[in-house]
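Forwarding the complex inputs:
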Amino acid sequence: MIEDRLTREILNTLLRNGADFSEIFAQRRVFNNLRLEDSKIENSSSGYELGCGLRLWVGDSTFYAYVDSLEKNKLLNAAKVLSSAINGSSSLKVLNLTETKSSYNTNIKKFPGKVNPGSKKNTLEAVDKSSRDFSPTIIQVTSVLSDTEEEIYIANSYGAFSFEKMVKTFLAVNVVARKRKNVRTGYKSLARSSGYEAFDFKNPENLAREASKIAVDMLDAVNAPSGELPVVIGPAFGGVIFHEACGHGLEADAVMKNASVFKDKIGKKIASDAVTAVDDSTLKYRWGSYKFDGEGFPSSKTVLIKDGILQSYIYDLRTSKKLGAKQTGNGRRQSFRHVPVPRMSNTYIESRDEDSGSIIKSVNKGIHAREFAGGQVDPVTGDFVFGISEGYLIENGKISFPIKDATLIGNGPEILKRIEAVGNNLDFAPGFCGKSGQSISNEVGQPTIKVSKITVGGTEN
Amino acid sequence: MQDNKSYMIRGEKLIKICKDTAFRINKYKVDEFEIFTASSVENEIEIFKGKIETLSFSDSIGIGIRIFKDKSIGYAYTTVLDKSSIEDCIRKAVSNCKITGREDYNYLPGEEEFTFKQKLIDDKSLFREDFLDYNIESKVTLAKRLETLTKSKDTRIVDIDNVMYNDSISETAILNSAGFCDRYKTTTCFIYVNAISKQNGDTSTGDFFGCGRAPGDLDLEEVAEKAAGRSVSILGGKKIKSQRVDLLLDPIVSAQFLGVIAGTLTADSVQKRKSLFEGKIGQKIFSIDVDIFDDGTIPDGLSSKSFDGEGVIKGKTCVFKDGCLKTYLYNTYTARKDKTLSTGNAVRASYRSTPEVGISNFYLEPSDIDFSLLLNDIDRGFYVMDIIGLHSGANPISGQVSVGAKGIWVENGNLSYPVKEVTIATDILSFCKSIKKVGNDLRFIPLGGYIGSPSLLVRDVAVSGK
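Prediction (whole assembly, two chains):
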């Protein structure tokens, strides 16, 4: 995207006043979005963005600027202005650039730009129909279909460059059901780092019916209980518990700033023996996968916890250098407008051998949580919450009534030790994660697990 | 470092971009069009242990084009403004019209559809010249001072994990084929600190922020005091038994609840049957006489603007009067559907999005009751200082709310001991009914709009803990 000679000229301009490191992140992005609501296509928009982020380091300080252009003069001028933010001199120079290799390769079959807009519209109309046909109680269906095609070029003063073409496809269905005064919602999404072959992975109409089923099943929900109870957390989106209770606390920027409960815990037991957890950005076509991270490092699989013992944090370049650890390829950013920070990619708890049915049977009185609305954590204290959007009471080892939405609240280090059982049905779910004002794609995953005791935020004593 | 001279104010240039684009669109067979151009120059500074951790500069611009053809709307945007990219953008917007549904109400707003007929806020309130007096060095100094100041507030504060300052000059212009052509510019700045405190093996965090139109508006002393106070006062917090109690909500917490309510008051959510307030105009929603306004013309309101996302003049709308629902919030499309006028609530997050319905400065009118009197009114209860998980714990469509909370237990009108790791659960309509008293300490938070609330005394809410 930027020729070799100009890349070196920009990197050297950035270095000239005493910087220790310089970097270029160029991005071209084509975006399409369709939204259907009230059974008609309400919004059809397209976007085109092009730009370049420039970064340099001096000691522990990062300086960043970007331009909405890849024109030579604008890039060089921005590099000059940014380098003048510091005053020193440097003998560092970039002489050669070598392309970074990645083991992650994709074979995109249906590029969004090649897909007829009419067939995208048909997909949403089919989604709408399948959702509504599921039950007469459905009063509204909102569905969104969006796709992006991106090119990303990254080069740095260590002499490395990378180039990646990235394609993403996203479909989400939000259903509202109403019976008398009860209004309930159901949400499902399908998101892949691939083209429209995503719909071969999962059928949109099935997705629509699943969303409707949640909304309809919840119409008869009873008040959720309050107080501490055992909770059986279902597979796939259930992995949000690990994402919040532990994942964010393992991101090395929090560790470096003394702002993580998991600081100084490498090699120590932080979870029950049943927990082995992994961050893996190389899972083919998953929502949180990539060839290179936002700093041009190849994607990789990192074991975070092995049989309850902490193995690694999640690093970007800056934190791995500062903490003297191995890079994990987790320096991610939303776009060329953003500074990369350590972020999870696809993060999950590995399967063990227990059957999910027997896990539910083992609970006398508790909750079975199947779908979630997301969560939040304070990594400093480890206190976290996550919201149940589809949950049931367990009475005498059996699932009984659906319950109204409730938030679960706990402390990460305590909850990890209370994971008593881990099932054999690992599955994944895509989502968006917000941190430092940046929203990025990732997946969470787990088999069915049981937490022996956690506070359920209901209303029934 | 960058000095003030390098701030690029685009001014009439934005209008020129709009006009040039309009000239290009005129070659296409379309019924109507609208061009929205927005630019912003931003600085962001993060400080850690007395040093610059990150310093970033940005300067961005983009245009969004809305095309109306055969009562269908197509949209496209671009951040690259050369001729061929703009031509591409127009072509995409035109072709996107073929996909969207036809709707008779799809046409540009006419002045006769505005509730407010003349501009109610002057440009000087939105754009403060003294903003330009601050260079990067002085802003870095400001952020460093907040770090030192916060740390000095209490010996139990061991670390400041984040001090962040950011500011921007934003410029917006709209031109449409119905004859509207205008622009405005704003300055804003924001500062944030998160303080970590420790005592007897327990760790606690407390954050606070300040915002305004120019760095001089930021009261660092207050931000430091509040962040430190919110951190240390929760130290040693424990879980309480699950029970129903009275809650005293800090303005920071009340405003977040109010934000959930605000989202359900747009005509769009009502017309699509996604609002709890559907069919409730004229009904008494609150049990006491609260007044709630959406006012896009408050001089120091960070969501104030001269006109909204489709060029309709901003005004002040009374949404609740004496606890009764008076109106929903409208853009022109939803107003036509309800046979009324736009309240100037078309909101655009950026040039990337089409105008949707949303709030501007949305607030609950304060009373004259001091915080201490509200506290005195509680025998046994919970003073909620912070909540966590609102985006996953509040469902604006079903109305169910369950969020994590921390604060201080109240016994006979006195603050007693810190509480953490509990939840509060209610539903939006019950919540409105259970508000019994309103304080005098109105505070605004920037949260999707600019939302303001005083402390609220709420009776008999479920708290879940042990």
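Chain B touches chain A through 82 residues (CB under 8 Å).
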